[in-house]
Amino acid sequence: MTYKQVVKDTARVLQSYLTYQAVKIIIDQLTETNPGHAIWLRNFSDRTKVQDSDNYLRELTLENKELVLRILTVRQDIAKQILEFLPEMVDTNIEQSNIEHRRHLLERLTQTQTPSIISSVDDINIESNQSDYKEE
Question: Can you point out the beta strands (E) in the chain?
């Protein structure tokens, strides 16, 4: 897989996630202002997977064009708000996560090796003691 493909896949996943967040925000808004629409959108979202945002929006267009426009507007606003900070946050979070996982792995490796080292040292001591007894 090339980096270009990874970038395209990541962008697609992020786009779908932002669509999901926009739908959540709109459902919360509608719950306060128009509970019937909130219930309808929640039910529609349960039937149609938001994970494929393009398909979700196409399906929603057939049912309620006004909500599609609202989702597109909110999604774009969220994207503008977060994209400035996202690269640095992702980089920092991955770096911190990698450090934590490496530390945990190192702890596990040293814990696993310690008993075998102790066992080897005990075996050497036993053999040494047995040879001492044989000489006497």
Answer: none
Residue 67: how many CB atoms within 10 A of its CB?
19
Residues in the chain: 136
Count of domains for the chain? 2
pLDDT tens readout for residues 69-80: 999 999 999 999
Tell me which residue has tokens 């450090």.
Answer: 99
pLDDT tens digit sequence for 3-35 = 999 999 999 999 999 999 999 999 999 999 999
Residue 136 belongs to what H/E stretch? none
- Count Cα neighbours of 112 within 13 Å in the Cβ-side half-sphere: 6
Please give the Cα distance from 115 to 136 (Å, whole number). Answer: 32
Does residue 57 sit in the same domain as residue 114?
no
Task: Please give the residue range of the domain that contains residue 19.
Answer: 3-84
Residue in 47, 98, 53 with CA at minimum distance from that of residue 75 = 53
Termini Cα distance of the chain: 69
Is 11 found in the same domain as 73?
A: yes
